[in-house]
Amino acid sequence: MDHGNNQFASNEALKSRRDDACPVGLPSKSGIYAARAQGAELWDVEGKRYIDFIGGIGVLNVGHSHPKVVEAISKQASSFVHTAFGIAQYESYVEVCEKLNRLTPGATPKKTALFNSGAEAVENAIKFARQITGRPGIIAFSGAFHGRTLLATTLTGKSKPYKVGFGPYVPAIFHGEYPDEYHGVSVADALASVDHIFKSMINANEVAAMIVEPVQGEGGFNPAPKEFLEGLRKKCDEHGILLVADEIQSGMGRTGKYFAFEHVGVEPDFICIAKSIAAGLPLSALTGKAELMDKVVPGSMGSTYGGNPVACAAALAVFEIIEEEGLLKRAIEIGEKTESRWRELQNGVAKGVIGDVRRVGGMCAVEFVKDGDPSKPNGDVAAAILTEARSRGLIMTTAGAYAQCLRSLVPLVVSDELLDEGLDIFADATEAALKA
């Protein structure tokens, strides 16, 4: 039986089965049960069509089921599906690493290891930094999201729902302030908070690494100003600390460059990559300066499934698609149009409710507040708009400390017509939610 096209299936019936079979702790962002998807569109089991502004939470920069990806997966699966790279190696793993070594920011020679998920890339970056430096301390930042394993959860700078009841957490991890001009946190404030950590919590010479998102994802799509990343790089260089870039959501073309750090001209020591690298197949990467990666003790890095050959084949297709279809340029076009439409709402029907519109390339978010006040987040209206949009055929997801932001992670292959339709739905949903 083809369960994905079961004519008797319904979202409500599948929800009932889900509730019986799955724990309540698993989130459900939409309540939609997918039957098929293509490009930037998705159809549920009831046949309803949606424009997808979530993209698998930033995983589908090249869209759902791109023909090149499907072909690459099929071809590789017909040869072999798995060997474990540590047992019988294969060229596609090496080729993915070669590409990332060339494309990641900075001129320093790089080396790459492949894993399964963003959290695993983060875990290994921190493990390796501690091993290489012989130091225990790690500095992360408020509002950060780095994953759901215990170490990644400890690094995450948002308590609810990610950290509730999971303590005690991994020791020697500290959080500085992340710059956020809209909410009154300046670059100077954020850099001073790092100095405060050095002064009152852990000596700088005991810190192995700082980990930072150049554009926060779950934190509300807040971009790190150039001066902040330059300041962190300077502090790291002064104290022998490694700088780790988490580009899991901002990477692979989303911001109009392969990686957001390229916008500011700062070279990290390690860069964590996942999400859109393999168009939905589980694959992540840790790329680092070659001299550092070669200091990791032999045998202390590895993964049973990491760099799976089918996922590597998909990743190689993704690189081709980004180049052949001009998706870096397309990300900027999508971002410009989205920002323009959202600012029209901010200056019109949603004046005083849309507090801020933020964008880096095609990475866009809109923040909702009460009475135009940044200190009064309005998660209720964001939730109402999300629900109204879904009823009209547009799926989105929230971000921010109070789920007060809506973000666009629409596949970069979206047509102008489909993008316009999605933005029209968003505008209608906003107006309807504000009238309710």
TrEMBL record:
PROSITE patterns, per the entry: AA_TRANSFER_CLASS_3 (PS00600)
Key words of the record: Aminotransferase, Pyridoxal phosphate, Transferase
The protein's required cofactors: pyridoxal 5'-phosphate
Record bears the keyword Nucleus: no
Biased composition (Polar residues): 1-10
Pfam families reported for this sequence: Aminotran_3
Matching PANTHER family: AMINOTRANSFERASE CLASS III (PTHR11986), LEUCINE_METHIONINE RACEMASE (PTHR11986:SF58)
Name the UniProt record assigns to this protein: 4-aminobutyrate--2-oxoglutarate transaminase
